[in-house]
Design goal:
The chain is built from four helices and two strands; from the N terminus they run ααββαα. The protein is an alpha+beta fold. The longest helix has 23 residues.
């Protein structure tokens, strides 16, 4: 779960809390890491994958709208700047 928490810029406790409703709805499964029993592995269920596939075009459209609103016209630079200040 550590890499997912890092990717989402969340601590593990927050990620665990956010995943509980998804797990309860059958969208994600949380399993022990076979290499390290202290760790957890996240897996989208079939229902989770179907929901992701249906949501992705909406995410792309909204993301494109946001990028068009970036005054500098350089969303890649904005992303890099945000990464730089987060370190």
């Amino acid at each position: 779960m550590g890499p997912v928490a890092q990717l989402l810029a969340m601590d593990r406790t927050t990620l665990t809390a956010a995943l509980k409703p998804l797990q309860k709805k059958g969208l994600v499964s949380i399993e022990p890491d076979p290499r390290d029993k202290r760790g957890k592995r996240l897996r989208l269920t079939e229902a989770g994958m179907q929901l992701l596939v249906s949501a992705f075009p909406i995410w792309e459209s909204v993301h494109a709208d946001v990028e068009r609103g970036i005054v500098s016209g350089n969303p890649s630079r904005l992303r890099q700047d945000l990464l730089d200040i987060s370190r």
